[in-house]
Design goal:
about 475 residues; Rossmann fold; 2 domains; 3-stranded antiparallel sheet
């Protein structure tokens, strides 16, 4: 009987047997619960966006095949979230022998400790319940030792008189303690080879061997791994025997559509845009934020093997909104609308999230790379909004010596005055967004000016938040 159908939880072994409860392996448990969710078309991974037709079907097939899995992808592709999300396919809770370190199955104990408890109490053996939230553990590979995840002989127990030949002398690591649960190893290529050998023995034989100690456990555990494709495929990083024993490889990816990236960015930013000085974010500003990540991933200056995490977009988006809200608070404007000039502050949130390609022939600083990425993103989005007709006319006016200064702390009401000498730019801004709100209009004006700069029709000089456009 499934644990989620029990009205009262049995407290002893005899009570458990009376319910008709039957043992089930973790993989069978995941298999059965997934089928139930598929039957009712339940959302399998709530909050995970963009994987509905790619990654999630592959995970479903791997679970139904009862495989251990490797999640292979670059940073910021939700590998850890997907692994942690497998918890929802476990039963709400399962019974185990109370006091047993390895959470032994009451009907199929594997440790001497549990077997002794049953021998002593028999049908009155106390039963405890293990909630699914506690049946998942993960470890980061760097610095992980054999004793951490598999086990070691405990000197304290030897000092207390326990025989070295007894199972009781062992201190079990994370994997044995996650018996009947899920264990995840992050960044497996960084794992010491000795530990990798211990892992592939567990994957193949499902037993534990500690320093040649003659102990064999029929462990019931699902093993998950995560890795970056570059390091995983590098010779000598992961031993072939371990690769051979992993059942399924799940390839993750970055958003394939900009709209998907924007949805992830907004969801993960988790910002309240209402309240005091509410924020209105023009669609093109969201698109520029996400396009910056796309441009970074395609940039010759950025190390493609490292990747550019979705956190790049999320952090920049939060910074952009914070800059707009600060302006509204300082200037007393009723609403905050992000502008291109607000993106100047994203250097603080972006630096450190890009790894430059040190083998490139281009010698550019991180700040220069970020500026190039921003210009390319603005140009890409601007071309989708603005008809090329009319840009030459604006450029010609700037060619007559016109200068326009804008900035992140310039009041929105000042933009109409600044654009009197370049009326075509003002008209182009109305084409992009016909709103009458001065703050929205200011954002559109800066978008047009930055787009002109992207097309090299005007030059741009930035100093302490002030931006001057001229020829």
């Amino acid at each position: 009987m499934p644990t989620d159908t029990l009205t009262t939880k049995p407290a002893t072994l005899s009570q458990l047997k009376a319910t008709g409860w039957q043992s089930k392996s973790v993989k069978q448990e995941l298999h059965d619960n997934l089928l139930k969710k598929l039957t009712i078309r339940e959302d399998l991974f709530p909050g995970v966006i963009g994987y509905e037709d790619t990654v999630i079907p592959e995970i479903s097939i791997a679970l139904l095949a009862q495989h251990d899995m490797l999640f292979l992808g670059e940073k910021g592709q939700a590998k850890s979230r997907l692994m942690r999300g497998l918890i929802q396919f476990l039963d709400l809770e399962i019974p185990y022998i109370a006091g047993a370190t390895l959470h032994d199955d009451p009907l199929n104990p594997i440790s001497k400790e549990a077997k002794k408890i049953i021998a002593h109490y028999r049908d009155d053996t106390p039963i405890a319940w293990w909630p699914r939230e506690e049946r998942y553990a993960e470890r980061l590979a760097p610095g992980t030792k054999f004793a951490d995840i598999i086990g070691e002989i405990d000197p304290a127990k030897l000092a207390a008189g326990t025989s070295m030949s007894a199972e009781e002398a062992l201190h079990f690591g994370l994997i044995p303690r996650m018996n009947r649960g899920i264990f995840a190893m992050n960044e497996v290529p960084e794992l010491d080879e000795l530990v990798q050998v211990g892992l592939f023995n567990i994957l193949e034989e499902r037993d534990v061997q500690v320093r040649g100690f003659p102990i064999r456990f029929d462990l019931d555990v699902v093993i998950l791994f995560s890795a970056n494709p570059t390091t995983y495929n590098r010779s000598g990083k992961v031993i072939p025997q371990l690769k051979d024993r992993i059942g399924s490889m799940i390839r993750t990816h970055y958003p394939r559509e900009r709209d998907t990236g924007i949805a992830i960015m907004e969801q993960e930013a988790g910002l309240d845009l209402d309240g005091q000085h509410p924020v209105r974010v023009p669609r093109f500003m969201k698109e520029i934020c996400e396009q910056m990540s796309t441009e970074a991933r395609q940039s010759d200056y950025v190390d493609a093997q490292s990747g550019v995490s979705a956190r790049f977009s999320i952090a920049n988006y939060r910074t952009m909104i914070a800059s707009a809200r600060r302006r509204a608070a300082v200037l007393g404007e009723p609403s905050a609308v992000p502008r291109i000039s607000d993106l100047a502050h994203t250097a603080a949130s972006a630096i450190g999230k890009l790894e430059l390609d040190m083998m490139s022939s281009h010698q550019m600083t991180e700040a220069q790379v970020l500026e190039a990425i921003q210009i390319a993103a603005v140009k890409k989005v601007f071309d989708e909004y603005a008809d090329q007709h009319g840009l030459d006319e604006i450029g010609d006016i700037f060619g007559k010596g016109v200068k326009i200064e804008v900035g992140d702390m310039l009041p929105s009401s000042a933009y109409a005055d600044r654009l009197r000498r370049v009326p075509p730019a003002w008209e182009k801004a109305f084409e992009i967004n016909p709103a009458d709100d001065p703050a929205v209009r200011a954002s559109c004006v800066e978008f047009v000016l930055a787009g002109l700069h992207g097309h090299r029709k005007v030059s741009r000089t930035t100093t302490h938040g002030a931006i001057v456009y001229e020829t």
